Amino acid sequence: MREYKLVVLGSGGVGKSALTVQFVQGIFVEKYDPTIEDSYRKQVEVDGIQSMLEILDTAGTEQFTAMRDLYMKNGQGFVLVYSITAQSTYNDLVDLRDTILKVKDTTDVPMVLVGNKCDLEDERVVGKEVGQTLARNWCSTFLETSAKLKVNVNEIFFDLVRQINKRTPVNKDKNKKRNVPQSNTISSSNVNNGQPTDGNNTNGCCVLL
Predict the structure, then answer these.
(1) How many CA atoms lie within 13 A of 199 on its CB side?
(2) What is the pLDDT of residue 200?
(3) What does 103-142 look like in DSSP terms, one character per residue?
(4) pTM of the model
């Protein structure tokens, strides 16, 4: 089974932990508790292939900067998260991405730009088109998400796996499901190439692939 090292980055309070816990455990953590560094493992099925995701939930960009180079070096794919309710968290991601590219010594890095808290539309200060434009400039995927309502949460991580597989294809015969109980995995069969899985309950959240 192929393993993937994914890193979730962004300013404090944007919902990095909430997104990660919602994906891994299926629950919404409303109380904000600043993270130092948490690691999660989740077995999923993406496009018929069993995959083990190791997800590193990191501290805010203003904290614990000494650890960054190490997890940027080891990470295979990156989730860059901002809050649509805080302009500064969006601005912070430009320097963060530049640091990733410098550490990785390449501009071809699997990455998803995430505008979180799209359930708080009345408090929005970062427009969808702003995120879309930045993602196009970066040649990356863009998703607006809600950890609270579980909008586009799974899509973040499935898309990163697909990006990694596109760059370094896997041998499907070696990674097919082998008697794995269905309850222990998340399947991408319900994920329509990054389209919202919650029917009409997207609250205006945006997907750009």
Answers:
(1) 1
(2) 39
(3) HHT-S---EEEEEE-TT-GGG--S-HHHHHHHHHHHT-EE
(4) 0.82
> Would you call 197 helix, strand, or coil by DSSP?
coil
CA atoms within 13 A on the CB side of 56: 21
Q: Are 135 and 113 in contact (CB under 8 A)?
A: yes
Dihedral class, residue 15 (left if φ above 0, else alpha if ψ from -120 to 50, else beta):
left
pLDDT for 133-173, tens place per residue?
Answer: 999 999 999 999 999 999 999 999 999 999 999 998 876 54
CB within 8 Å of 40: residues ≥ 6 apart: 20, 21, 24, 54, 55, 57
What are the two backbone dihedrals, phi and then psi, of residue 168, each rounded to the nearest 5 degrees? -135, 85
Q: Which fold has domain 2-165?
A: Rossmann fold (3.40.50)
Give pLDDT < 50 ranges for the chain.
173, 175-184, 189-203
Hey, which residues does 5 pair with through a beta bridge? 54
CA distance 209 to 196: 12
Selection from 209, 206, 28 nearest residue 126 by Cα: 206
CA quadruple 192, 141, 186, 148: dihedral sign:
negative
Tell me the two tokens of residue 153. Answer: 């949460």
C-alpha–C-alpha distance, residues 16 and 115, integer Å: 11
